[in-house]
Specification:
The chain has 87 residues and is mainly alpha-helical. 48% of the residues lie in helices and 11% in strands. It has a domain of 41 residues. It is built from three helices and two strands. The protein has a two-stranded antiparallel ribbon. The radius of gyration is 20 Å and the shape is extended.
């Protein structure tokens, strides 16, 4: 399967009804799933990824439920606040 046809199949899957059997009952979800957050890719150093993972683990040990994406969103929000008058 070519990369293009694979992508077309993935795109068409987004709008297919999802069918799931729950305890013998078929549940159909008509609406496509949309994430609250769009996907984005950014490149950071290996050291930054390591530190971010360490921070997630440290916060979880203290009882805060978080993940890398939540921390990145928090950092971006603080960055925007810092540069608010400049943009």
């Amino acid at each position: 399967m070519s990369a293009k046809s694979f992508k077309q199949n993935r795109e068409s899957e987004k709008f297919q009804p999802r069918i799931k059997s729950v305890g013998g009952t078929t549940v159909r979800k008509e609406e496509p799933y949309e994430s609250k957050y769009p996907r984005a890719t950014f490149y950071v150093s290996k050291n930054d990824v390591y530190k971010l993972e360490e921070l997630v683990l440290a916060l979880k040990r203290k009882g805060r439920q978080t993940d890398k994406s939540a921390l990145v969103r928090e950092a971006i929000k603080k960055l925007f606040e810092e540069y608010e008058g400049e943009i």
